[in-house]
Structure formats: C-alpha cells, structure tokens
Write a structure and sequence with these properties.
2 copies of one chain form a homodimer. With 101 residues, chain A is of the alpha+beta class. Helix content of chain A is 40%, strand content 21%. A 4-stranded antiparallel beta sheet of chain A has the order 1-2-4-3, covered by helices on one side.
C-alpha cells in the first residue's frame, strides 16, 4: 500500500467545505455526533467499524449513551491525509440526518 | 424500576477483589482493555453494547484501534451502584483472556 500523502492547509480547508460539522483540533479532524439514543449511536458505530476495518483506517472515538465523539488522523503520516477526509465523509453518510455532522 | 442504591466504600472495595483490572478513579469504575486488533476490540464492544442496552445501563467508553477504555457510573445515583459492578463483571466475561481486566 502506498502511504497516503499529507494534506496541505489549503487542501484541508477545501475538504472541510463539504464536511460542515467537522473541525481541525490539534491537527486532527474532530466531530461530535448526537443521536436519538444508544441504539442509534451504537448502530452508527457498527456501520463505521465495518467500513473502517475494510479500509484499514480506524477512528479514535468515544461514546456516552447517544453521543459519539470522533477524532481522525493518519498515524503513519503524523497528520491528515485523504484517508481521514474519506472516512469523515463515510461517517457523515452513515449517520442519520438529525446529527450535526 | 427501583433506583439502584449507592454502594459504600467497603462494598466497592469488596467488589474490586473480583475485578482485579478495575480501579476507582474520580468516583467512577475504570478499566483499560487491550485486544489483538480492532476486530477483537470492536467485537467486544458489540457484545457489551447488547448487554448494556438490555440492562439499560451503558458504559462511557473510548476506542483507539485495539484498546478500549471504559468508565462506569450510575448517573441517576450520582455514584457507583451494583449496576456498575454487574456491568464490569459482564465486560470481563465478554473480554477475551488476554486482556488485563
């Protein structure tokens, strides 16, 4: 597998236009999802877990009942790459309309 | 449902004898599980999610690849109750032998 290239600040800014709920915090992509309840929150996590494992690119995330907090970075690149942007897009697609991200 | 009773310090100490990987941090039960990889870690989380939803008692937890960090408390009781001890025991049972908790 070819290592993913680090994104420039401009490339990150451009990508964030289509990821309105996401922000960069400490050099990582961050988002807080809120769902109706635990079943919806963990259902979302399960969808994302399958997609993440398939791509071998995994989120750092935490869950408290109906909330899922996500941080994305590419450890091999020590920064953000297209793998993070793509995973963020997949997560937004897997989330249900009522969440802020 | 009858609200669960807060545990005394002595009751918590007694319970921790059979939960060797767990400790009390800031008044909450805490444990760090480590698995072989993401599939094992998320498989564990999925088992626990079903058990937690069934009991309507959910963990606060975070996951980074093969690690799962868990915090348990009973919000309604503003402290630890037998619901936390029982969920900790279920989690230890759901985890695979190689984890520290």
């Amino acid at each position: 597998m070819i290592p993913a290239k680090n994104l420039s600040e401009r490339e990150i800014e451009d990508a964030l236009v289509s990821l309105p709920g996401w922000s960069v915090q400490g050099g990582k992509l961050h988002c807080e999802y809120k769902f109706a309840d635990f079943v919806e929150a963990f259902g979302f996590m399960t969808q994302v877990a399958l997609l993440a494992e398939k791509r071998n690119h995994h989120p750092e995330w935490s869950n408290v009942y109906n909330r899922v907090s996500v941080t994305l970075t590419t450890h091999d690149a020590n920064g953000l790459t297209m793998n993070d942007i793509e995973l963020a897009r997949l997560m937004d697609r897997a989330s249900i309309g009522e969440t802020p991200c």
